[in-house]
Amino acid sequence: MAQKPKVDPHVGRLGYLQALVTEFQETESQDAKQQVLANLANFAYDPSNYQYLRQLQVLDLFLDSLSEENETLVKFAIALR
């Protein structure tokens, strides 16, 4: 299981989301990628996160995940569980 991103508790929501995006991009672990993408999908349900997700280009991350061989990543990218 992936560890929580190492984030200073004072950086706020943007910093936390940035840490998730960075972890997704840098990890080699498929389990970690799945967990991070699921977390980002959960954040996408809250409209107050939209500006941060847009700034961090999370939509592009979801779209790129649609071409992954890992079926779970594809499902998370389209928010099917």
TrEMBL record:
> Which superkingdom does the taxonomy of this entry point to?
Eukaryota
- What is the protein named? Armadillo repeat-containing protein 7 isoform X5
Q: Which SUPFAM superfamilies match?
A: ARM repeat (SSF48371)
Q: What is the lineage of its organism?
A: Eukaryota, Metazoa, Chordata, Craniata, Vertebrata
Where are the annotated coiled coils located? none
